[in-house]
Structure formats: C-alpha cells, structure tokens
User: Which sequence fits this backbone?
C-alpha cells in the first residue's frame, strides 16, 4: 500500500463501520418485510383453508350420502321425470278412488263429489258443473251422518252437538186443499211455511187462494207460522213491487208470524218471461225483495235447491239472509248454513190429504 493510501485510511476510520451498519439495517428491514409477508401469506393460507373446509362441508350437505352432482340439464331432466312420476301416481290414486266409488255403488255424481271435495258439483240438464265453495259464506258445520230418517220417514238430527235444536214442519199452498190443522198439530207438526202468493208467468201478481185460511187455521191450532212468496220479477222494480204486495198480505198477521218470510228461487220453463235472467239479475231481484222484507220487520229467507243457490245467485252478495234448502235426502251436500231443510216432497201428515212437503227447522242455541 502506498503512503498516500495509508494516509487516506487514517483520515476515514469510520467509513467501514458506517457501511457495515447501513448494510445491517437494510438486511434487517428485508428480514422484517420477509417475516411480515410470510405472516400475511400464512393468514391468507389459513383463511383459504377454512373457506375451503366450509365450502366442502356445504357441498357435502348438498351432495348427500351418494355424492351425486347434477348439471343444469340433468336437474331439468330429473324434474321432468319427477313430474311424470307424480302425474302417474296421482292418476293411479284417482283411478283407485273411482274404482272404489263405483264398486261401493256410488253414482257418477257421488263419485265426482268425492273426487272434487273443494268444489260443489251440480248436475243440470245432463251436464256437470263445478263451483268453488265460497269461503266468505258461513258453513253449516255438520258432518256426514248428523241427520237420519226415522221409521216414520221423518228427518231428525242425530249428532252430538247439544246446542242444536230442531222442529218439525210442513210447507203448504192451495194445492194441498183444505187442511185440518188441529190434526196436523196432534201429529207433531210444530211450524208451517204457508204460501202467500207470487207473480205468474204472465207477469200478474196473485194471492194464494187459501193463504188466509191456512194462516188462521195453523195459528189457531198453536202451530208457529211463516210465509213464502214465489218470485217472478224480471227486474229490481218488479221485485220491489212484489215485496210491497207481500207485506200487504202479511200485515194482518204482523204479530203472529214467528218464522221467516221466504222468497223462492223458481225453476221456470224456457218460454217463461224470466227464463233468460242472468245470475246477477236473479241476485239483484232476490236482494231487493229480501231487503224490503227485512225493513218491514220480518226475517227474510231465500228458498232454493242446490242448483238454484249456486247457479242462479251470487251467495257472497246475499249470504246475510237465512236459507231454506231443498234436499230430498239425509245426505247433506249443501255446505252453507241454513235454517230450514225441506227433505221430502211426498210426505204424509195427518190432517192433510195427499202428499205434502216436509221440513226440518235447524237452529243452534243463541243463533237466530
């Protein structure tokens, strides 16, 4: 080493030490960065492992024990197969139910009513009609077997509801001739629905020829009475006219009528002036008549068969009036509440010559 170089070394004694420290610090920073990076990578690796474990667990749950996975096309194919199998099972169930119904002696109507329990099945002119049961109209709450015919042909309630009370009755008109009401009362008749009149197919209002005689005779014999009218209105104006006429006929018996005042949904021939009335028109006419009867201080009631009620009226619109149903059977198919059940068209009662309609008034305690 030259003298000059030795002189420079002596003049910079800290140079190497400084360089050493700088290098040491730089290496330390690099090491710390490496450790930090390693920590971040470790955390990310652990998080990825957990996410993978969760994903595998969810996938395992979706796969099921058989570990079968499906593509979108395969899922669509499986769905179609399930539908076909479901239809086949449903078809087999329906066929079994049809076979069972026919083997048990059910009619076609009975079979359809069993199959379509959410609908009301009506037979009219050889065709079958299906009407959904209206949820907003009060149901009668009775079960199969709650009513039964006795040996004398009269219908009775045989259910277990102690709140149900019944009365035996008849409905009559001038067609029944002269009636011995005392004999009828002794035979067990407790009430009578008596025809007051109606409007004929020529559009003329009439009073029943024996209305007053029947009212006076039944009342004198201690039989409770109500009355009914044969509706022939073609519009609301005529319905109001009929209601006024009916109230006039009833006025002498205002305080003696304890049963409802009913209006009949008529079955009319094709040449009748009201044959073409729509369901809405029938409903409006019935409502007009009944609202006037109610305003007159009586309990309004609508009489009809199952077909009459569901095919000619909107029960949701006139469901507030009492119902008098025609069903010549002890098999109660009518789902809605009712106050009177006409169950026989050819009954026999002492004091009444020939056949007579028989009725059963049904009431729950506390319900009018």
Assistant:
């Amino acid at each position: 080493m030259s003298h000059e170089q030795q002189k420079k070394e002596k003049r910079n004694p800290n140079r190497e030490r400084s360089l050493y420290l700088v290098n040491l610090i730089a290496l330390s920073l690099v090491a710390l960065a490496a450790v930090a990076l390693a920590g971040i990578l470790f955390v990310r690796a652990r998080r990825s492992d957990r996410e993978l474990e969760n994903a595998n667990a969810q996938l395992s749950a979706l796969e099921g024990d058989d570990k079968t996975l499906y593509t979108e096309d395969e899922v669509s194919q499986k769905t179609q197969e399930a539908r076909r199998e479901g239809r086949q099972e449903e078809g087999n169930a329906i066929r079994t139910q049809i076979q069972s119904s026919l083997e048990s002696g059910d009619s076609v109507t009975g079979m359809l009513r069993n199959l379509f329990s959410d609908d009301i099945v009506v037979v009219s002119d050889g065709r079958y009609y299906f009407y959904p049961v209206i949820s907003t109209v009060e149901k009668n709450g009775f079960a199969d077997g709650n009513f039964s015919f006795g040996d004398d042909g009269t219908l009775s309630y045989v259910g277990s509801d102690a709140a149900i009370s019944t009365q035996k009755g008849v409905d009559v008109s001038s067609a029944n001739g002269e009636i011995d009401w005392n004999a009828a009362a002794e035979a067990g008749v407790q009430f009578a629905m008596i025809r007051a009149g109606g409007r004929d197919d020529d559009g003329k209002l009439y009073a029943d020829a024996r209305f007053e005689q029947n009212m006076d005779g039944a009342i004198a014999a201690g039989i409770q009475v109500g009355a009914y009218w044969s509706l022939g209105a073609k519009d609301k104006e005529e319905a109001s006219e009929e209601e006024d006429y009916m109230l006039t006929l009833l006025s002498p018996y205002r305080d003696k009528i304890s049963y409802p005042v009913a209006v009949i949904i008529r079955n009319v021939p094709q040449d009748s002036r009201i044959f073409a009335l729509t369901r809405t028109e029938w409903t409006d006419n019935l409502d007009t008549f009944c609202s006037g009867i109610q305003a007159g201080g009586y309990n309004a009631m609508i009489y009809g068969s199952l077909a009459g009620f569901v095919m000619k009226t909107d029960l949701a619109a006139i469901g507030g009036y009492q119902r008098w149903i025609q069903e010549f059977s002890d098999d109660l198919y009518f789902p809605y509440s009712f106050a009177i059940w006409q169950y026989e068209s050819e009954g026999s009662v002492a004091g009444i010559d020939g056949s007579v309609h028989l009725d059963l008034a049904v009431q729950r305690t506390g319900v009018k």
Remarks:
- DSSP finds ten helices and 13 strands in the chain.
- Confidence is low (pLDDT under 50) at residues 1-15, 28-43.
